């Protein structure tokens, strides 16, 4: 059972919800809830966002760790103002680890993002990912759509979440073969940067060879984001060919003494 399945079951138990009642909250089929809890499947990212919002937990906690009752109710006995008659005493204030929030642009919000991307109120109203550490540059997350970056069951799948860092709209700062999310006034594309064309436009390549290269004039680009990581609910088992290649590579390393 994954953390997600365990957490859904924990939430149901703490909130005293049946599988049917939980399913009704998020327009799910009751058997789907059972499948999530048993680890036979996992919810789509938009469903996870709805669950996190509804029960007031952060999305990263929901998918990365087993929730506790404290997480669900948001209290900490070491931070409470206790009555003098209580046997427990306040020992210390817990030191909170540094975290930062990253706005998450879901597919349904992309059209609005083109128009309102510079409005603080709009950005603050988007769902957010909460990650540990301190951000050195601006980050943003985007829900990936389409099959342009998927080939032979590998690569970025429809519905994956791309975690990105901001890049200046300057072609000299881009790294060849790295994946970028590129925005214009009315378009959002995810491609590998290949270099510049003769007319100094960005040459962008899809991992899927069925899609042609894109050429975007730098002047049309409004935002550039470097893809640093991806969250996917799809876990593919290695094919027999991949397993044979892995064994062959291991054998070669042993023979060469690496």
Automatic annotation (TrEMBL):
Transmembrane regions listed in the UniProt entry: none
According to the UniProt entry, where is the signal peptide? none
Q: Does the keyword Cell membrane apply?
A: no
InterPro entries in the record, alphabetically?
A: Cro/C1-type_HTH, Lambda_DNA-bd_dom_sf, LexA/Signal_pep-like_sf, Peptidase_S24_S26A/B/C
CDD domains the record matches: HTH_XRE
According to the entry, every stretch annotated as the HTH cro/C1-type domain falls at 8-62
Q: Which UniProt keywords apply?
A: DNA-binding
Molecular function GO terms recorded: DNA binding
Name of protein: Helix-turn-helix domain-containing protein
Name the source organism: Rufibacter hautae
Q: What is the lineage of its organism?
A: Bacteria, Pseudomonadati, Bacteroidota, Cytophagia, Cytophagales
């Amino acid at each position: 059972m994954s953390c997600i399945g365990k957490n859904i079951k924990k939430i149901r138990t703490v909130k005293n919800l049946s599988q049917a009642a939980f399913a009704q909250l998020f327009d799910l089929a009751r058997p789907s809830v059972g499948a999530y809890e048993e680890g036979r499947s996992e919810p789509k990212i938009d469903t996870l966002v709805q669950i996190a919002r509804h029960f007031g937990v952060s999305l990263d906690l929901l998918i990365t760790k087993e929730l506790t009752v404290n997480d669900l109710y948001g209290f900490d006995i070491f931070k409470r103002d206790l009555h003098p008659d209580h046997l427990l005493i306040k020992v210390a204030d817990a030191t909170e680890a540094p975290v930062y929030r990253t706005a998450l642009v879901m597919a349904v919000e992309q059209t609005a993002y083109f128009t309102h991307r510079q409005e603080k109120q709009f950005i603050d109203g988007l769902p957010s990912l909460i990650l540990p550490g301190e951000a050195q540059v601006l980050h943003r997350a985007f829900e990936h759509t389409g099959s342009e970056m998927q080939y032979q069951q590998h690569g970025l799948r429809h519905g994956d979440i791309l975690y990105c860092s901001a890049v200046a709209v300057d072609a000299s700062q881009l790294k060849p073969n790295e994946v970028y999310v590129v925005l214009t006034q009315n378009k959002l594309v995810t491609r590998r940067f290949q270099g510049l064309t003769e007319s100094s436009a960005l040459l962008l390549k899809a991992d899927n060879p069925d899609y042609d290269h894109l050429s975007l004039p730098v002047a049309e680009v409004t935002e550039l984001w470097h893809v640093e990581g991806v969250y996917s609910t799809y876990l593919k088992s290695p094919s027999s060919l991949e397993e044979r290649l892995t064994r062959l590579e291991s054998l070669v390393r042993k023979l060469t003494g690496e």
